[in-house]
Write a structure and sequence with these properties.
By secondary structure, this protein is an alpha/beta fold. Helices cover 45% and strands 11% of the residues.
């Protein structure tokens, strides 16, 4: 009985160690948690993948982690795709290149919008003929870079809708709203400023106004009854992430290929 109780307690306290590997937030096309890429390689890949999205519309992301255990790399990659939502909504043209460094496994997960251009057989050729040979030589950066290049080349063969700038929608509506606010708010403010200006000029001409201020000379007197409203700086939140990266609402389900080295 004591042994059974001890075993139950051991399993209870050991269960957190078997928790699923966390999924990092998506902030850029390359997320190198596994630490297999150099800074220069990450920068190059980020530029290349962002340019690919602008030209093609499809999203390709690279994720490296130390391990996916206790899950298989297939299970983990599906969870990543579900959370990151790579690819455009309704088009589902996202691709994930996942590398688990300590497990020595990798996978290409494909959204079903690209399964025609990147079927399982092509994904397998990319992993086995391009990525894995370089990984076996310790060239992780070269394997990831050449692998993503092959994925982009294959994905370019799919006939998909043309990409649209992420912030281009609603531009005309924004312009209309700007001019509406400018006319409805700006004109009354301008009228108030002109009225105040006329009033202050009238008051400055009155000799009693100067004597009440107790100032000695006309040249040094400026009669202002408004507090300084420019003391608060308008420099709040300058960068809103114009170069940010996020999923487009796509779904997975197009298959893919796993490999090891």
């Amino acid at each position: 009985m004591k042994h059974a109780l001890f075993l139950a307690l051991l399993l209870t306290f050991a269960s957190p160690a078997m928790a699923d590997m966390a999924i990092p937030p998506l902030k850029s096309p390359v997320t190198d948690v596994g630490g297999i890429l150099t800074r220069a390689q990450r920068d190059e890949l980020n530029r290349t993948l962002k340019d690919f999205e602008r030209r093609k519309g499809s999203q390709l992301a690279v994720l490296t982690v130390p391990t996916t255990k206790p899950e298989t790399i297939e299970q983990y990659s599906i969870r990543v795709m579900e959370k990151w939502k790579l690819g455009r909504k309704g088009i589902n043209d996202g691709v994930l290149l996942l590398v688990a460094a300590q497990d020595r496994t990798l996978r290409i997960e494909v959204g079903y919008g690209l399964e025609g251009a990147l079927p399982d057989a092509i994904a397998k050729r990319i992993t086995s003929e391009i990525i894995v040979p370089r990984f076996k030589q310790g060239d992780f950066g070269g394997g990831v870079i050449e692998g993503t290049r092959a994925i982009m080349q294959a994905a370019s063969g799919e006939n998909l809708p043309a990409p649209q700038p992420r912030h281009a929608t609603g531009t005309q509506g924004d312009d209309d709203m700007f001019w509406f606010l400018a006319l409805s708010v700006g004109v009354p403010i301008l009228f108030i400023i002109l009225s105040v200006f006329k009033f202050t000029r009238h008051v400055r001409r009155r000799p009693g106004a100067i004597s009440r201020r107790g100032l000695g000379s006309d040249n040094s007197t400026t009669y202002t009854s408004f507090p300084d409203s420019g003391s608060s700086s308008g420099d709040s939140g300058g960068s809103s992430g114009g170069d940010s990266f996020s999923g487009g609402g796509g779904e997975s389900g197009g298959g893919g290929s796993s490999d090891s080295w």
